[in-house]
Amino acid sequence: MIYRESGQFKKSYAADQAILPLRQDQVFLIGALLVAFLVIPMVASNYVMNALLLPFLIYALAAIGLNLLVGYCGQISLGTGGFMAVGAFAAWNLATRTELPMPVVFLLAGLITAGTGVLFGLPALRIKGFYLAVTTLAAQFFLIWLLQRPWFNNYSPTGVISAPEVNMFGWVVDSVTDRYYLALIILVVMALLAKNIVRSSTGRKWMAIRDMDVAAEIIGIRPMATKLKAFAVSSFFVGIAGVLWGFLYLGQLEAEAFNIYVSFDVLFMIIIGGLGSILGSILGAAFVVLVPIFLNVVPSAIGLPLSTAMISYVEIFIFGSLIIFFLIVEPHGMARLWSIIKQKLRLWPFPY
Amino acid sequence: MAANAADVTSRAGSSEVLLKVEDVELRFGGVRALRGVSFEIRRGEIFSIIGPNGAGKSSMLNCINGFYHPTSGTITYKGQPRKAMRPYVTASQGVARTFQNIALFKGMSTLDNIMTGRHLKTKATLLENAFWFGRAKREEMEHRKFCEEIIDFLNLQHVRKTPVGTLPYGLQKRVELGRALAAEPELLLLDEPMAGMNLEEKQDMARFVLDVNDEFGMTICLIEHDMGVVMDLSDRIVVLDHGEMIGQGTPAEVSNDPKVIEAYLGVQEEGEA
């Protein structure tokens, strides 16, 4: 009843292939954007923005990037943290060693990460599945080791370097609200780009390789070029997420901040959120960021305070069991649950 | 749907040789899957490869579209001899195929599968796709229109947006044919398009094959076990047995060839009617 498509006729292919063909979805998206851009900055405290919303936005961007590779092209990567580090360090070095304007620094850092991604994606031309996962795992450790070399932090004695001022076309991004807005804008724009890519011929090529690479080759898709393109685009997204993570969230950089656990977190997000779904990446990021907070707040509120150590264990339990649950019951994750809800809402409250 | 070979008039085929297989041998270690096979496929005809299980029919198709490379012998396509070639190169030269065991992109919808088959005709770059401007948007609409024509032709309208993994077998076969047609190939290789179908589905599929050949002038090379279908559809037939070619000719010639009857159609036992 609520989510009805009847009466909404498509008179052109363009209308039928729009990102959100249904009016209800359009209204929902506009509502969500209004909340994100207007309501949240007014009501959210600095703490919530800094500790909750910023990591959520940046993780969501990284998750979209990884989802392009894993969910759409079917190539597994455990090196997300390493690629985020490449983006962050590339941006830091470009910003401190050159006079380039900040937007260009962001773009170049993304491109450098894309290049690195292609390099470490080369084994994908030969190997699949587990073996590819292992080589990207090697990439993770190698990249972190490499970025700990003194040249990359300009021989800083502590190994920790602070992020430069972020100046976007004259807008100095400094306060928490500013940083929230910048991360939000970049996420919205890049999510739109990702959506466009996956609904176009490039995305179909990736999915073809994912679903049946032999048949994909038969219809003229070049497996090498297609896989490497997926690695490049995915790494670009992840690299930009790395820049944001270092410059906006942490405020200071050290390679260890991008360790293997970051890679796992992002992988959890796309499994829980939904492989092969842009919306799923965002939902998954929200979930993974929210669960620890939830565990902090709720047990003490109901009179069962957990120790910090306990919370981190419970967190691991919850993620672990959820991943198993989703892999068995709903491989398409929360995004699929969302579409089931929409299906139900077509009829609700009537039985049929 | 624009016919890409409008110069071809009748389904009897012209005399122009589209694909020539000469003395092809294919060996896997000690197994000789194909031994000295030679035949020609002429533009515009329906050509069938038949033979018992393990005769090397699918191996022959795999050689033609570049999956396998003949150990010796030559394959000449459109007058160009070729040896080792990747399947995607063959595809770009206008060869499309379907598989015996359906090889669709299961996670994608019918429409997306057929649109993917159109891939060789798209030119939009990644950036155009990402920003959805220029060729990206225009091509998407043009190809959508073309693919809708294929969907109409194959009667797939009702499953346009259904993920193909959930479709029944017969429909999946049809979607696979649609995906091959989307590339507007010159040579269409069909590996057992009617395997596992009931009579009605077979009739439908046979009609599609004839229409494709008739209306769009596509040359078709077909592997099929159902003799009735093969004899009715084909212009010419080649018969393989244990990797060797044992007969070639029109359906009438082949079905009267004693060697073929012995190897494939079956010898009449004494005492049987």
Entry keywords:
heterodimer; A: 352 residues; mainly alpha; ABC transporter involved in vitamin B12 uptake, BtuC; two-stranded antiparallel ribbon; 14 helices; 3% strand; B: 273 residues; alpha/beta; Rossmann fold; 2 domains; 6-stranded mixed beta sheet; 4-stranded antiparallel beta sheet; 37% helix; 23% strand; globular
Describe the 3D structure.
- The complex is a heterodimer of chains A (352) and B (273).
- Chain A is 72% helix and 3% strand.
- Chain A has helices at residues 13-16, 23-43, 46-72, 80-97, 102-121, 129-147, 176-198, 201-211, 213-218, 223-250, 260-273, 278-301, 308-329, 333-347, and strands at 161-162, 166-168, 171-173, 252-253.
- In chain A, helix 3 packs parallel to helix 7 and helix 11 (260-273) crosses helix 12 (278-301).
- Chain A is mainly α.
- Chain A has one domain (48-347): ABC transporter involved in vitamin B12 uptake, BtuC, CATH 1.10.3470.
- Chain A is globular, with a radius of gyration of 21 Å.
- Chain A has a two-stranded antiparallel ribbon. Chain A has a two-stranded antiparallel ribbon with strand order 2-3.
- Chain B is α/β, with parallel strands linked by helices and 273 residues long.
- Chain B has two domains: 1-94 and 186-266, P-loop containing nucleotide triphosphate hydrolases (Rossmann fold), CATH 3.40.50; 105-184, no CATH class.
- Chain B has helices at residues 57-64, 87-92, 110-117, 126-131, 135-153, 169-182, 199-216, 227-233, 251-256, 258-265, and strands at 17-28, 31-42, 46-50, 72-77, 80-82, 95-98, 187-191, 219-223, 236-241, 244-249.
- In chain B, the strands form two sheets. In chain B, strands 6-7-8-3-9-10 form a six-stranded mixed sheet, with helices on both faces.
- In chain B, helix 3 (110-117) runs parallel beside helix 6.
- Chain B is globular and about 60 Å long.
- Residues 1-11 of chain B have low confidence and may be disordered.
- Chain A binds chain B through residues 12-14, 16-17, 193-194, 196-197, 200-205, 207-208, 210-212, 214-223, 229, 233, 276, and chain B through 65, 86-88, 91-92, 96-97, 99, 103-108, 112, 115-117, 119-120, 122, 124, 126, 129-132, 136-137, 139-141, 144-145, 148, 179-180, 183.
